[in-house]
Amino acid sequence: xxxxxxxxxxxxxxxxxxxxxxxxxxxxxxxxxxxxxxxxxxxxxxxxxxxxxxxxxxxxxxxxxxxxxxxxxxxxxxxxxxxxxxxxxxxxxxxxxxxxxxxxxxxxxxxxxxxxxxxxxxxxxxxxxxxxxxxxxxxxxxxxxxxxxxxxxxxxxxxxxxxxxxxxxxxxxxxxxxxxxxxxxxxxxxxxxxxxxxxxxxxxxxxxxxxxxxxxxxxxxxxxxxxxxxxxxxxxxxxxxxxxxxxxxxxxxxxxxxxxxxxxxxxxxxxxxxxxxxxxxxxxxxxxxxxxxxxxxxxxxxxxxxxxxxxxxxxxxxxxxxxxxxxxxxxxxxxxxxxxxxxxxxxxxxxxxxxxxxxxxxxxxxxxxxxxxxxx
Length: 376
Ligand SMILES: [Zn+2]
Fold this sequence. Notes:
Elements: H1 2-9, H2 16-37, H3 39-48, E1 67-68, H4 69-74, E2 87-90, E3 101-104, H5 106-119, E4 131-138, H6 147-155, E5 161-171, E6 174-178, H7 179-189, E7 196-200, H8 202-214, E8 226-229, H9 236-239, H10 243-254, E9 261-267, E10 270-275, E11 282-283, E12 288-293, E13 307-313, E14 323-325, E15 328-333, E16 346-352, H11 365-371, E17 374-375
Parallel strand pairs: 1-14, 4-5, 4-7, 6-17, 7-8, 8-9
Antiparallel strand pairs: 2-3, 5-6, 9-10, 11-16, 12-13, 13-14, 13-15, 15-16
Helix pairs in contact: 1-2, 1-5, 2-3, 8-10
The chain binds zinc ion.
Zinc ion binds near residues 338, 340 and 342.
């Protein structure tokens, strides 16, 4: 996978124009491999009459058949034998219990690590200063192979971790949301000389901050503290909480400024690390490309037009994740419209397709809240 190696070695993580050719070659290389080694993927391409050598220009990427992420919940697609996959992660599943299983080879993990190291520079997330961590997510369990729990844990490795407090704790065979313990930890760590970093679902952060506000608890966290949010704002579509309200509350109860809040976007079926810029926009990094498609014709639409989000990447060899379509609706904006200095386009997620019908709970905090015993 020499082109993937070259791409992931590239120094500027947002130099899309300078890496278009390399990206295309990495895609062709990966697609050819998957076609040869994954019978399920080959069948899909054959069915669509698409051969990997059709990828000759960047525009041809739009013709590569995209796989809905729901497909990975029904079918196991691997391009290498399971024993050669040191990591297999699952999505959080659905109410029907079906979850995607995505395999990573050693090379995939290595590429992923390089990507994270490059992208973390954007918001200076790597540091030798030790931090306390509060994770608004699952306490890791051997049996819990979900991508979100692994990602949340991975983020606590950006600095030396002095402690980790989890909002969802494993007690007597079930996850229990324990916001009281999290709040106690926040109050305690606010007096520490080391920064406190939060990581996890925005919904939990919101519930916690509301709880603090109701109890009139306000802290000023040490300098360098960060509120890092991942797993999407999906649950907020129902809650109708807008970001400015969220940020204002973070300032009020935690003393965190806008610049201290950092968001991530990604999915198990598209393990690319999207880190927001200082204006909270997800610029596309060189490791992926995004196409927005018309919901009816499925044809690509110009920047600025809403549509179905199609995510493209050559990072993963273990599972053919070359072109996937989650349930997200979004808009791709011209890079220059942000004003932060990055000129790569940025992705705005608008919501989910068929919110009423789709019960994917990748970050379905509200759903979890209904199921788990809540200790408030
Ligand atoms: Zn920006």
